[in-house]
Amino acid sequence: MPSLTFYGGINEIGGNKILLEAEGTRIFLDFGMSFNIANQYFAEFLQPRKCTALADFFELGLLPDVKGIYREDYLKHMDRPAEERSVDAVLLTHAHADHAQYIHFLRTDIPIYCTEATRTILQVLEETGSNPLSDLVTACDAFTFYTNKRGTLSRVTRRNTDFVHERIYHVMAPEDRVTIGSLEIEMVPVDHSLPGACGYVIYSDEGNLVYTGDIRFHGYNQALSKQFVKKAQAAKPKWLVTEGTRIDSARTDSESGVRSEITQLIATAKGLVFVEHPIRDLDRVNTIFEAARTNDRAFVVTLKLAYLIEALGDLAPFSLSAVKILVPKKSWGLIGKDGYGFDWNQVERDYANWERAFISRENAITCKELQQKPENYVVSMSLWEINQLTDLQPEAAIWIKSSCEPFSDEMKLDEERKRNWLEHFGIKDYFAHASGHASGPELKALINAINPDRLYPVHTEHPELFKDFFKNVELVELGKKYTL
Ligand SMILES: [Zn+2]
Ligand SMILES: [Zn+2]
């Protein structure tokens, strides 16, 4: 009999790690990080220790102690004997950390199935991220030494390419069906607040299973979600694992609504317009780009966003040449400083290797230029780069927060810090946002249409609310095996 074991995503939003076992085939549906548990025990300056490999993560329930899935280098450092690989694949629905971050810990011989955009975003995170858990597309042997030219031992770093291993990725196209052991897997794209999001329909002799991943019906790709429901319905699944983030909310908002709001706010602005948004939500980025264009302003992106847009290529909503790239002052801050007799190498030294490719582009721009013609620009900005306000000295500027309201204590503190900056510079702030998740009524319609025998709500703080509307709900417990 097939079974499901839920190692995350239970009574919380995200952290999905769901093990499906069927006729000797074992696959994980997502392998994400739980922000909830991480925030219970850790803070900015209290993090799980690298030196314990997996021990801090096992101890506090951040990762399940499942045999045969974790990296050999980590197990060895914990004095655990080598293990045989025990799962056949991981299916990722999208590249958000709460679904994908912890693949960092997985063996490199476990194949990962996902969309092209998901793989690209994970690669960008690996190349540009500051997160230490970034062995997402490749993995570098940890706790390993090599003999250097002097004949003594050195610690392996990413520069020792012999110790960097490629993970095995299978990029899936829509309608592709692949066979993994006894299961047939179909990737079906959905609308969500990140490019490349998908759900899966899994076919087996004993019945079919549908997994929604994260889904919404109000973005620019809403047709994909409708198509997903049709596909799932046609599979007549016995089991449906659905996200339920907003089961308690009937609020309807839409990406096109956000576009009109931001367009109007820009129209009334006299000075610079700053927009704070989730960096990898390319739908939102496109919304801001269009709103800026309607107002004859150029959209100015950060170096990180520039890197992502370029990496996505045709999967991005517009090309990098259509926007300006803001090069912030860093370290010595020599950018835009003329006549001091230093050479370009000195300017470059302030920037990471991946950033250097952008700072001398034709469409690169500095705070100095923004300050000269503030009415010409809409600037992508976050708290983490807000100290550029000192360089910009903005007058009559506005700030549009186009991301979710803070929900953790840490986020509330960050929000307060941001508010202090805005007050200091007399910047008026506004809010325009639409969620990445379906509303309660939309979720009910999805479930009614797919009509599974059994329903497993995950990725929600309120799984019990599903019981008010459906009889066949399983309120799942963490780590318990459910025979299907
Ligand atoms: Zn999620
Ligand atoms: Zn998500």
Instruction: Give the terminus-to-terminus CA distance.
Output: 6 Å
Bound molecules: zinc ion
Task: Please state the average pLDDT score.
Answer: 95
In CATH, the topology of the largest domain is named Metallo-beta-lactamase, Chain A
Count up the helices: 15
Q: Estimate the helix proportion, in percent.
A: 25-40%
Q: Using the alpha-carbon principal axes, give the shape.
A: globular
How much of the polypeptide forms β-strand, as a percent range? 15-25%
Q: Provide the CATH superfamily of the largest domain.
A: Ribonuclease Z/Hydroxyacylglutathione hydrolase-like
Give the total of domains: 2
Strand order in space, largest sheet: 10-5-4-3-2-1-24
Task: Write a short abstract of this structure.
This protein is α/β, with parallel strands linked by helices and 484 residues long. The chain is built from 15 helices and 24 strands. The strands form five sheets. Strands 10-5-4-3-2-1-24 form a seven-stranded mixed beta sheet. Strands 19-18-17-20-16-21-22 form a seven-stranded parallel beta sheet. It has a six-stranded mixed beta sheet with strand order 11-12-13-14-15-23.
